[in-house]
């Protein structure tokens, strides 16, 4: 199905996400001719602002971040579709006024009344916004139209709050009209995981415990708590902020069984099975053995001095929140029995890079045993999620020359050179999917809750047990704590160097 004209109402419209991601995404869709005609944007937030002030603020940011640059003439036309609606999130009257305003927009557009509500406010208002939408009858679509909701992360802070939020959402909107966004699923390279696995014949036969020794998922960031982020982050931590959602989602794409079709439920049925099959680290002993948490101490990143985590703005000086986490995961399914999966995520690491590496078992190397050093390493398939998106395969080759010596070489595919054009931003694809009614790349209720079950056990051991596993340290600008290296050494593995 195709994306349809609609009004996008963004709650939390004065926030960073709206300015840096959402509006630039819609602008770029318009430039690329992908946006259905007649899309209107209404920003909903508490601050007093005129339409004009709102538009100016958006324009300023669009100039800085827009993927395909900023064109004054195009913007001038585009901004006519943007307006601002001031209201408290808890004020029923504000929603009544919103309903009237949306009706007026519909009339201008010739009666078409599709609405896409995007809940991107601070998470403590998610409940209120949904409840008020229902109070004003905005959750009900008009005849022949639709009303859908996109809910931003964080989707709860643990299983109980996620279940509660799910109840509130499902009391307000049909599950089929509910889009829990995880922007990692909108990344081009994440979408390509299924294509790589299921459109090629050579990988899937090897994609199991017989041939794969282990898998690593690394998400490195070279930033800390800039822009006042510490306030949110210190209550969340790396595990909740990135692992519960983005990284478990990537893992499920890597490990799921082939779905029977590409429908939203066909794909999500398979993803949730994997998350449900994660072995639970449900005692402090298991957590201590399989999970490493750490905080950065002062150091240098990109040549710049950085404070330690506990010295950051809006972070508790005695904080026990992790800025780094490494986890060993086991998936108890027929395909993956015995294969360790390692996930690591950290702030203030040397660079920004996300990649997944599939490490294959060694070839039986009887033939080359006698060579000095034997066979140098095994096959590794690397999926670079970002930046420098692409895929590479590490193989062993003979060094040209008169003697037999071996060296690893790389077969490398780069999106930028193979396709000669940039990928759309994740939010572009996802907004378009929501306008088209396709929820495949959004998390379903059960996926979110199963992921929280796994995360909750670990958080519980850290924060509620009488024998909490220790907090390790790493210097800002290093690749993480030595304890994370030891986690892999126990299995005879090492982290891939990025
Ligand atoms: C967000 C997290 O969901 O994802 C941030 O809250 C993180 O802490 C960000 O930095 C990373 O997204 P990306 O697309 O820059 O890798």
UniProtKB/TrEMBL annotation:
Leader sequence residues: none
Provide the family line. Answer: Belongs to the glucose-6-phosphate dehydrogenase family.
| Active-site feature positions | 246
**In which residues is substrate bound?**
183, 187, 221, 241, 347, 352
Which key words tag this protein in UniProt?
Answer: Carbohydrate metabolism, Glucose metabolism, NADP, Oxidoreductase
Specify the domain of life of the species encoding this protein.
Bacteria
> What functional role does this protein have?
Catalyzes the oxidation of glucose 6-phosphate to 6-phosphogluconolactone.
**Which EC numbers does the record give?**
1.1.1.49
What region holds the Glucose-6-phosphate dehydrogenase C-terminal domain?
Answer: 194-496
- Give the enzyme class: oxidoreductase
State the InterPro entries in the record.
G6P_DH, G6P_DH_AS, G6P_DH_C, G6P_DH_NAD-bd, NAD(P)-bd_dom_sf
The pathway this protein participates in, as annotated, is: Carbohydrate degradation; pentose phosphate pathway; D-ribulose 5-phosphate from D-glucose 6-phosphate (oxidative stage): step 1/3
SUPFAM superfamilies (alphabetical): Glyceraldehyde-3-phosphate dehydrogenase-like, C-terminal domain, NAD(P)-binding Rossmann-fold domains
Identify the Pfam families for this entry.
G6PD_C, G6PD_N
List the NCBIfam families hit by this protein, alphabetically. Answer: PRK12853.1-3, zwf
**Coiled coil location:** none
Q: Does the keyword NADP apply?
A: yes
What is catalyzed by this enzyme?
D-glucose 6-phosphate + NADP(+) = 6-phospho-D-glucono-1,5-lactone + NADPH + H(+)
Q: What is this protein called?
A: Glucose-6-phosphate 1-dehydrogenase
Instruction: Tell me one GO molecular function of this protein.
Output: glucose-6-phosphate dehydrogenase activity
**Annotated Glucose-6-phosphate dehydrogenase NAD-binding domain residues:** 9-192
User: Which positions does UniProt annotate for NADP(+) binding?
Assistant: 46, 88-89, 153
């Amino acid at each position: 199905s195709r994306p349809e004209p609609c009004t996008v109402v963004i709650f939390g419209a004065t926030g960073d996400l709206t300015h840096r991601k959402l509006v630039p995404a819609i602008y770029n869709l318009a430039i690329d001719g992908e946006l259905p005609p007649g899309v209107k944007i209404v920003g909903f937030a508490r601050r007093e602002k005129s339409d004009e002030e709102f538009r100016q603020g958006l324009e300023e940011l669009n100039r800085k971040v827009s993927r395909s640059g900023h064109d004054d003439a195009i913007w001038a036309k585009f901004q006519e579709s943007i307006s601002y609606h001031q209201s408290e999130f808890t004020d029923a009257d504000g929603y009544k006024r919103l309903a009237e305003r949306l009706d007026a927009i519909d009339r201008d557009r010739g009666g078409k009344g599709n609405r896409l509500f995007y809940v991107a406010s601070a998470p403590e208002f998610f409940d209120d916004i949904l409840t008020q939408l229902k109070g004003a009858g905005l959750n009900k679509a008009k005849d022949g139209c639709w009303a859908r909701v996109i809910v931003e992360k964080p989707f709860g802070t643990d299983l109980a709050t996620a279940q509660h939020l799910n109840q509130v959402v499902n009391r307000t909107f049909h599950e089929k009209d509910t889009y829990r966004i995880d922007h990692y699923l909108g990344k081009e390279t994440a979408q390509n995981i299924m294509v790589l696995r299921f459109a090629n014949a050579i990988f899937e036969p090897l994609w199991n415990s017989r041939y794969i020794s282990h898998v690593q998922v690394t998400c490195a960031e070279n930033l800390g708590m800039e822009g006042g982020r510490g306030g949110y982050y210190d209550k969340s931590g790396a595990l909740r902020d990135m692992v519960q959602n983005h990284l478990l989602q990537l893992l499920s794409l890597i490990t799921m069984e082939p779905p029977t079709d590409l429908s939203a439920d066909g794909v999500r049925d398979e993803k949730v099975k994997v998350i449900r099959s994660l072995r639970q680290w449900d005692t402090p002993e298991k957590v201590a053995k399989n999970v490493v948490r750490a905080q950065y101490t002062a150091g240098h990143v990109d040549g710049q001095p950085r404070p330690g985590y506990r010295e950051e703005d809006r972070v508790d000086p005695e904080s026990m929140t992790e800025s780094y986490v490494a986890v060993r995961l086991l998936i108890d399914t027929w395909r993956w029995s015995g294969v360790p999966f390692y996930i690591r995520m950290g702030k203030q690491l040397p660079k920004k890079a996300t990649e997944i590496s599939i490490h294959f078992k060694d070839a039986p190397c009887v033939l080359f045993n006698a060579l000095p050093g034997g066979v140098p390493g095994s096959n590794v398939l690397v999926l670079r999620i970002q930046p420098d998106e692409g895929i590479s395969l590490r193989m062993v080759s003979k060094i040209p020359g008169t003697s037999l010596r071996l060296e690893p070489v790389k077969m490398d595919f780069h999106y930028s050179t193979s396709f000669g054009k940039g990928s759309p931003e994740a939010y572009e694809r996802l907004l378009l999917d929501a306008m088209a009614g396709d929820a495949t790349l959004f998390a379903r209720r059960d996926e979110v809750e199963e992921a929280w079950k796994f995360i909750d056990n670990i958080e519980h051991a850290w924060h509620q047990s009488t024998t909490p596993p220790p907090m390790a340290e790493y210097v800002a600008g290093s690749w993480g704590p030595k304890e994370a290296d030891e986690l892999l050494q126990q299995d005879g593995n090492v982290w891939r160097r990025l």
